[in-house]
Amino acid sequence: MVQAPGNIETRLYINGEWFESPDQIHLVRPFDEQPLCSVHSATVGHIDAAVSAALLSFPAWRDLGPLGRKPFFRRLSALIREHVSEFAALNALNLGRSSEISKWELQHSADMYEYYAEAAIDIVGETRVGVDGRLDFELRQPYGVVGAIIPWNVPTLMFTMKTGAALAAGNTVVLKSSEKAPLTSLLMASLMHKAGFPAGVVNVLSGLGPVAGARLAEHPDVRKLSFTGSTATGRLLQKVSAETNLKKFQLELGGKSPCIVFADADLKKAAELLANSFTFLSGQACIASTRVLVEESVMEEFMGFVKSLFLPTSAGALLYPTVDGADGLSPLVDEIQFKKVLAYIEEGKRTSTTPVIGGHRIGTKGYFVAPCIFENLPQSSRLIQEEIFGPVVCVNTFKTEQEALTLANDTQYGLYASAFSKDVGRLMRCAKGLDAGMLGLNITSPDLVPGFAFGGYKSSGSGRDGYKHGLLTMVEQKTVGLNYGSQAHSMA
């Protein structure tokens, strides 16, 4: 059993100080259903205070410029690397997460802050000298106060993607963590304080969506909101904002990622990568490959490889072992998610004509669900059309390339997609034909392209996170025409 750090911070970080709240969120350890701790939950008043602090600190932070802000990110990156064990302990207790996954997440977070320490200097606009005495140019300036709402599945990495880009561009931030996994965000707040970020530049609050999240979305002084979470919640936040100041939105929402396996693919490799994809974080990943389309002529052979990975004696053993075992799978985050996933599985069992593999509860304590494989569910099934966020995959067949693309695109989502084939021309047609913001060709999630944009098509969101693409979404463009000569000029 991993021991918790000596003092778990549970308060709200506002304007460089820690505050308590009369409202509490009670956390339960997902691997044994025992109480973990209670954290302070932000009220509307706390959100208002945080936004006011961010608004007040914005001019000075903006005017530091990229080089002036650089040392803060450098110090923060170093502190993250020094405190990996504390982050890992919190993730183990709060999420049942393995130390290996936590180290992976923290490495990416530290690297990303180092990137933002250097990259903000590259935010530049365009210039045009059209006629004598006139200069036309573009400015890219920070919004001001940026709100951020993050999910619970990779909380530290999401914290970094939201705050890193916004702060590096010169904005100030009010971040609401997920009520399911707030502890690492509070540890990040303490490290940012230690790194010397000025009071009010970053504010970190635990809180409930209908209270703290809704207030952040409707607050008139929040100029932009960056949200990662479900498509349903994204729609609600936009509706709330539309009734106030029409703030700019950056949304990374749900996914139902298709994976196409053609007959000429390396079927064994594809099966292994698929198994890793839909069980990574126990399926609690928006980019998980949860819909698989296999060319009909190799369906039996492919499924033989897949099923061999989930024998009763080694179910999930190749995957990421947790603090308390459970055959190598981490638990679902809480009872709500656990019951939701099991309900989807039971619905699938009622409609499936093929014996279902897995999908049962593991043990009698903790929110563990065995990997579940469905075959040949109808395209209209909720298990194919909706994001489950659990270790559940649906496998169907196709006969032609065009049919595969049609089926792959037949959901409201478009976050991630993948395809396996030895025919490069076919893979390039898939790259163009799949409605997804991110693709893997002969690879699949969680393998992503380092340094490139993260985001989706259709109901999977708008805007992009990550590195330079995330940075550019955190500035507004301003077009300027300057007449410095004695003669007036007109474009008319």
Biggest pleated sheet: 6 strands, mixed
What's the gyration radius in Å?
24 Å
Q: What class would the helix/strand composition place it in?
A: alpha/beta
- Alpha-carbon distance between the two ends: 74 Å
Approximately how much helix is present in the residues? 25-40%
Number of helical segments with 4 or more residues: 14
Q: What is the β-strand count?
A: 21
* Average pLDDT: 92
Q: Which stretches are poorly predicted, pLDDT < 50 over at least 5 residues?
A: 313-327
Strand content: 15-25%
Spatial shape: globular
Strand order of the largest sheet: 9-8-7-10-11-20
Question: Can you walk me through this structure?
Answer:
With 492 residues, this protein is α/β, with parallel strands linked by helices. Helices cover 38% and strands 21% of the residues. It is built from 14 helices and 21 strands. It has helices spanning 44-82, 84-95, 99-119, 155-168, 183-194, 209-218, 231-242, 267-279, 299-308, 335-351, 382-385, 401-408, 424-433, 467-472, and strands spanning 12-14, 17-19, 24-28, 35-40, 127-128, 134-142, 145-149, 172-177, 202-206, 224-228, 248-252, 257-261, 289-295, 372-375, 392-398, 413-414, 416-420, 438-441, 457-458, 461-462, 475-483. It has a 6-stranded mixed beta sheet, sandwiched between helices. Strands 14-15-13-12-17-18 form a 6-stranded parallel beta sheet, sandwiched between helices. The model is unreliable at 313-327 (pLDDT under 50).
